[in-house]
Amino acid sequence: MTSVAAPAGGAQGKQARSRSSTIIYVSTGTVLSILFLLPLVWAVLRSFMQPSDITAAPSARAFGHLTVANYSGLITGSIHILRYVGNSVLVAGGTAVLTAVLATLAGYGLGRTRFRFRGSNVVFALILVTLMVPFQAILTPLFLELSFLHLLDNWLGLILFYSTFNLPFGVFVMRNSFMAAPSELEEAAYCEGAKVLTTLRTVLLPLVMPGVATTMLYAFLFAWTEFLGALTFITSINRLTLPVALLNVETGTFGQVNYGFLIAGAVIAMVPCAVLYVALQRFYVTGITAGGVKG
Amino acid sequence: MADIELSHVDKVYEGAEAPAVRDLSLKIADGEFMVLVGPSGCGKTTALRMVAGLEDITEGELRIGGRVVNDVPPQGRNISFVFQNYALFPHMTVYDNMAFGLKLAKVDKATRDKRVRETARMLGLDEYLNRKPRALSGGQRQRVAMGRAIVREPQAYLMDEPLSNLDAKLRVSMRAELARLQRDLNVTTIYVTHDQTEAMTMGDRIAIIRRGQLQQAGAPTELFYKPKNLFVAEFIGSPSINLVESSLRADGDSLYADVAGQPLLIDPEALSERPALRGYAGKRLIIGIRPQDFEVGVAGTRRRGCQVEAKVELVEALGTETNVHFCVNAPPVITDEVLELAADLGKDEATRVERKARAGRNEFIARVDPKTQVRNGDTITLAVDTAQMHFFDPETGQAIR
Ligand SMILES: Nc1ncnc2c1ncn2[C@@H]1O[C@H](COP(=O)(O)OP(=O)(O)O)[C@@H](O)[C@H]1O
Ligand SMILES: [Mg+2]
Fold first, then answer.
1. Domain spans of chain A?
2. For residue B99, what pLDDT is reported?
3. How far apart are CA B85 and CA B311, in angstroms?
4. B184: which of A155, A158, A262, B37 lies 20 to 30 Å off by Cα?
């Protein structure tokens, strides 16, 4: 941000500058927040409107007839949205956990100098290269592979697929997290008698928790919103994940296109993401290693 | 408790050209406080980490309590390591930090609790047991690190410059406290520092290391009075030893050392203790005189040839002692050792030595009785305790014995 004017110097000038920069900061933040929040608020509001109002031009009249019919219809009607929410929670949760566990172990191995081996950097580079491969490009081989493993139309297959494509990023994050953790802490634990995995669990894991949270959140959101893979690999209607189920609402597999249902479904889909984000947020608080090393 | 023995230990880091530790042989007796000291980068930490098992031993053998432990991981060595930066577990309270090792050793909860509380009381940490390390001061963190080491009652304590992050005053008081604690607990200790005062005041024995090699190991007084080489002589003692290049002249049975044109009679007893000295008659050598071996004024009983004239350049009255700086009409002694130690003391000291070298001025410091009245610019006669003089070969830097 450019400074408004040359400061007059002295405390007064400084104060004036900090006040004007606060104003700029707050107003920019407010504008951006509104920009991002408006569609969300709009969606939430519309999800409480009657289907006829949703497709009509926005008018004050529509707000007089707010209803929860869309939600109750989705939940109790033939659509059984909660079943798909459950499916998605299971798949996305499984993906998040599996990715976090594997990325933590791989990051530990690649991030600590004590585990360095000849070619460990090459291994890491190869893992990163897979980030460049869009999974859509290899959907057919993946389909064949899962079919060979008898994991088609199976949540485990879907979880493995999602984890595979989230691991490069996860390993990258976890490796950096472990590299940032002071090696003395690990060595202190060794001297105190802790074995490698005990040290990882009791001493290092709390330090790399921000990395774990990032990895989990990223994997969860990926799995929660992923569509093409789920559409390809899951065939039974009962096992569908939420994005595919919502598409069915839209294309009318369950009947006619119902925009009320569709928007309410989208709002329902947002809730777990928001909950997870808030739940993991405390791990992003800085200063977790403060006080451990250095005077 | 146990003794520790390193025999011919080498450490070569992967990719490094020179070994970080070379042929280190050292025996630390059960209960002994051994200090490893030397300029930074000389390999002290490396040596200590090898004893702890945090670093592989390239060559040689390490025994703890008689058992060869080269291939035993740190977990199996039953030692405590105190890190320079303390390495406290940041997410655990003081109590949990201290109980960590006991928990892993499966000490039952009641005993554990008793030992943690006892140790905390001993270190004055009882009030802080529920705090996290970040809520502690530097001195308190240092104590917690000590507590974590002590509470487990290990075979040995290994400490890597544990006081270097404290401010000067706290460092002095912690120094005494730590030495007392070690004496009470009587646990074998290897203590690394690059501060010679710390080494002299704390250690039962001191091992001086330079460029990965042991220079001399012995009691503080032994290193002070009988340094094996120029490096040890220069490193130990504050203010440091005065060095001057000189030549020896034989006169009958006596030997005279020429110090800036003034002949100094070498004490006959010192001469008989150093038979090799006679071989240097007519040759160059380096003479070392400790600041405290000067005395202002000459007692009538002193023999001829034990005094030097000096023009006072600067008087530092420190209360308990007075340091008199005076110029000596001889080039300064600038050896590798001198340069290395000056560089270790920091940039200022290094440039000071360089300036001295360019100017060709050799400055001595005499530490004299604070009651003597000496002023800047005075010309005084200083008596030299020639029995305490040190002699070094100018080529090898070895003491002439
Ligand atoms: N992990 C390492 N890899 C390569 N060289 C190292 C490593 N640790 C220390 N060294 C080198 O070994 C020498 C001794 O280091 P160190 O034992 O830390 O010295 P000190 O503790 O006496 O200051 C130094 O030259 C240092 O650069
Ligand atoms: Mg060191």
1. 2-69, 70-293
2. 96
3. 47
4. B37
Amino acid at A256: Q
Ligand 1 contact via B42 beta carbon (within 6 Å) = yes
pLDDT, tens digit, for every residue of B204-254? Answer: 999 999 999 999 999 999 999 999 999 999 999 989 999 999 999 988 888
Pocket test for ligand 1, best of B14, B46, B235 (most atoms within 8 A of CB): B46
Ranges under pLDDT 50 in chain A = 1-10, 286-291, 294-295
pTM of this structure: 0.84
What pLDDT is recorded for position A295?
A: 36
C-alpha A183/C-alpha B45 separation (Å) is 15
For the domain bounded by A70-293, which CATH number is listed? 1.10.3720.10
Residue partners of A116: CB distance under 8 A and separation at least 6: none
Interchain contact B89–A (C-beta under 8 A): yes
Helix axes B109-122, B94-104, angle to 10 degrees: 130
Contact A206 B91 (CB under 8 A): yes
Give me the pLDDT at residue A14, please. Answer: 61
ipTM for the whole complex: 0.89
Report the residue from B81, B83, B134 with minimal CB separation from A291. Answer: B134
Helix axes A81-111, A69-76, angle to 10 degrees: 80
The share of chain B scoring above pLDDT 70, in percent, equals: 98
d(CA A268, CA A82): 9
Alpha helices in B105-193 (DSSP H): 109-122, 138-151, 168-185
Strand ranges across the sheet with B21-28? B21-28, B4-11, B59-64, B67-68
- Reduced to 3 states (helix: H, G, I; strand: E, B; else coil), residue B390 is strand
The string of DSSP letters for B77-127 reads T-EEEE-TT----TTS-HHHHHHHHHHHTT--HHHHHHHHHHHHHHTT-GG
Residue B298 — pLDDT band, cuts 50, 70, 90? low
> Which chain B residue has its CA at the smallest distance from A186's CA?
B87
B262 touches chain A (CB under 8 A): no
> What is the C-alpha separation between B262 and B265, in angstroms, rounded?
10
What gap in Å lies between CA B203 and CA B228, rounded to an integer?
A: 18
Least Cα distance to A193 among B16, B106, B60 occurs for B106
| Stretch (H or E) spanning A265 | helix A259-281
The residue with tokens 């999602």 is A162
Mutate to test the pocket of ligand 1, among B10, B13, B58, B208 (most ligand atoms within 8 A of CB): B13
How far is residue B379 from each of residues A12, A48, B322, B382, measured CA to CA in Å?
60, 102, 16, 10
Sheet holding B284-289, edge to edge: B262-265, B254-259, B242-251, B284-289, B390-392
Collect all residues of chain B within an 8 Å Cβ-Cβ radius of residue A292: 86-90, 133-134
Average pLDDT over residues B360-389: 88
Chains A, B: CB pairs < 8 Å: 96
